Amino acid sequence: xxxxxxxxxxxxxxxxxxxxxxxxxxxxxxxxxxxxxxxxxxxxxxxxxxxxxxxxxxxxxxxxxxxxxxxxxxxxxxxxxxxx
Length: 84
What we know:
By secondary structure, the protein is mainly α. The protein contains 4 helices and 2 strands.
């Protein structure tokens, strides 16, 4: 049986990465974070093997925007703090 990632393929990138795209990408990376399972890392949101489609899309958008890992982690922390 094929995985959902193989069937659906990658999410398309926006033609131009806007500030709104960055907001969505940070949310995708935060919500679709890795979680340890007995069979390995899985997405904590949809239980797909990590990194799932939305996590990969978010990272590609943030990479295209030129953000470093440290900047991405800071944005995720900022988002988490604003939701409390």
